[in-house]
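Retry 2 of 3 after timeout on previous attempt. Resubmitting structure tokens to design endpoint.
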């Protein structure tokens, strides 16, 4: 469209020449005037187009925008103006800047005036005397090609005679670590027990870069509390159950002797404060009931005795014989009941159940209604041996046999029908550990032999459900080979803890990035000192660990409010490449 306008402007003088030959002077005047108009339109059009759209063709623009000039300049002293200016190397999406522009301490609302790649930002609040201010641009700032600012930008200035020199730096560890806000709160003159980030905006803040790293520079000496928050609403507040958060394991103190603290690390999680509820109760047949829950449940809080099923008319109870959760999600469970009477409606009530975050299921969210099924149970149960495929190689000698069933089965019958033999025909003794009647483990009494072939045999008529359904007169066999010692290696080293008299066992994990179908290797230490991961397959490994201060065997993320520090954890900074029969030694793992 613009090209057509330009062509038309150039042609107009010629049209007037041919239509006004009787008045030569007038034609020249009109011709000159219209040429000037055409040139002006061309200039305006060119100016309009400049910067609005990148030329077509060529490789895509992936260069991040940069800040090339600021007002005031970094480190300015005795500053008392009421505006800031920023000049960028590229055109910026204006909204992204407005949502990522922060000043600490706060200066209230801002007014933005744009001029191409430059912006002037005005404020009305008065500046405090003898105070270091930090203008921060987060990494959510993007150009018109959606390229992010490579790292958060900080511009310090002071209304006094000096710039504060303290700093805190660290990393957010997450699948998507970029763009996470770091909230910092001064604790001097404040009761730390009342500090609630859901209601109080941070005193200082920054945003993580592409690799999750961050730095809070130009801080005054003092005590600070930090949170990592993926601020979904961009309101500079922590929104429970919406924002992912991370808590450090202690408050941080900056002094003239320790002006810089580095190595702060956050793991992100979601805080769950909602009570779980029973979503539905539906009969599968006249002796089985499927329960669905709103979220993953703590199966250790679920007992048969805590379940009651009553006929809604007569009040007569329906027996409950078994409760089995789907351990993959812990959101579904099957009940084995007495025979349901056709045409009757039942009311089920669950007591004492909690979700995995310890929220109690409360009335009336623990009640369900269902109509009896008329269908008998005729389904033959099936099963799957987890993690050991037919003819599998390099099976860990520490592996147990994990068997998952389609429904609750007779555990004693199955235990009698399973056998494990080595290649010489000798039986492998062991015991069974059952999570439920549909999920069990066979644990060998002694460690399996490396480089040995084993055979699992299961008689099918031993897999029998509560209704007596079973597949008759057949046996299945599955062979697998344990890992050969010749292809194994180890990682040895020392764990150091900078905190004297630290409490809690140490859990270390080695994850094989090359062989992702292998479970992480986990070892436990009573205290800092030497460690060894043995019988590892070759590949690339990452090491991590945590100090279990609450002695529950699970990493505790902590809470923003009421404040609960996270347990201390560490991630080894490098990926370790392990080769068969070439142990890695001297690996140093440090807890800060």
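Retry 2 succeeded. Sequence:
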């Amino acid at each position: 469209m613009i090209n057509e306008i330009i062509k038309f402007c150039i042609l107009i003088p010629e049209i007037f020449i041919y239509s006004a030959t009787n008045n030569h002077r007038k034609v020249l005047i009109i011709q000159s005037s219209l040429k000037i108009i055409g040139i002006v339109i061309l200039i305006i059009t060119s100016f309009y187009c400049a910067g609005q759209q990148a030329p077509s063709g060529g490789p895509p623009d992936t260069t991040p925008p940069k800040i090339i000039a600021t007002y005031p300049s970094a480190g300015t002293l005795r500053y008392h103006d009421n505006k800031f200016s920023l000049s960028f190397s590229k055109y910026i999406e204006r909204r992204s800047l407005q949502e990522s522009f922060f000043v600490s301490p706060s200066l209230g609302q801002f007014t933005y005036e744009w001029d191409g790649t430059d912006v002037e930002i005005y404020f009305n609040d008065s500046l405090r005397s003898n105070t270091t201010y930090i203008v921060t641009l987060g990494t959510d700032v993007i150009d018109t090609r959606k390229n992010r600012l490579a790292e958060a930008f900080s511009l310090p200035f002071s209304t006094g005679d000096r710039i504060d020199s303290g700093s805190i730096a660290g990393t957010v560890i997450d699948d998507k670590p970029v763009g996470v806000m770091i909230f910092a709160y001064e604790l001097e003159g404040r009761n730390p027990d009342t500090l609630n980030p859901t209601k109080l905006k941070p005193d200082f803040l920054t945003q993580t870069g592409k690799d999750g790293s961050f730095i809070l520079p130009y801080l005054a000496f003092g005590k600070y509390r930090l949170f990592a928050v993926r601020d979904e609403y961009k309101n500079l507040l922590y929104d429970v159950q919406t924002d992912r958060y991370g808590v450090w394991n202690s408050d941080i103190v900056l002094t003239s002797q320790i002006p810089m603290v580095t190595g702060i690390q956050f793991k992100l999680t979601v805080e769950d404060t909602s009570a779980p509820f029973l979503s539905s109760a539906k009969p599968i047949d006249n002796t089985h009931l499927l329960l669905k829950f709103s979220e993953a449940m703590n199966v250790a809080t679920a007992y048969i005795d805590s379940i009651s099923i009553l006929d809604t008319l007569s009040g007569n109870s329906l027996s409950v014989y078994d409760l089995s959760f789907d351990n993959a999600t812990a959101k579904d469970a099957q009940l084995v009941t007495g025979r349901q009477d056709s045409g009757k409606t039942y009311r089920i009530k669950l007591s004492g159940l909690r979700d995995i975050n310890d929220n109690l299921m409360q009335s009336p969210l623990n009640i369900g209604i269902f109509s009896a099924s008329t269908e008998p149970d005729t389904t033959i149960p099936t099963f799957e041996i987890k993690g050991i495929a037919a003819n599998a190689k390099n099976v860990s000698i520490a592996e147990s046999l994990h068997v998952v069933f389609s429904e609750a089965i007779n555990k004693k019958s199955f235990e009698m029908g399973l056998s494990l033999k080595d290649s010489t025909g000798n039986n492998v003794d062991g015991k069974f550990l059952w999570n439920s009647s549909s999920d069990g483990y066979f644990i060998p009494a002694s460690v399996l032999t490396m480089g040995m072939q084993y055979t699992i045999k299961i008689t099918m008529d031993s897999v029998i459900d509560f209704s007596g359904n079973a597949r008759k007169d057949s046996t299945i066999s599955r062979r697998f080979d344990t890992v050969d010692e010749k292809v194994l290696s180890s990682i040895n080293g020392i764990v150091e803890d900078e905190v004297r008299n630290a409490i809690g066992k140490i859990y270390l994990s080695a994850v094989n990035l090359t062989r992702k179908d292998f479970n992480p290797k986990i070892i436990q230490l009573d205290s800092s000192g030497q460690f060894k991961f043995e019988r590892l397959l070759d590949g690339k490994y990452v090491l991590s660990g945590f100090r279990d201060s609450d002695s529950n065997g699970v990493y505790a993320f902590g809470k923003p409010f009421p404040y609960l520090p996270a347990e201390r954890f560490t991630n080894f900074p490098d990926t370790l490449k392990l080769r068969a029969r070439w142990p890695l030694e001297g690996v140093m793992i440090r807890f800060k």
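Attempt log closed. Residues 496 and 590 are 5 Å apart (CA to CA).
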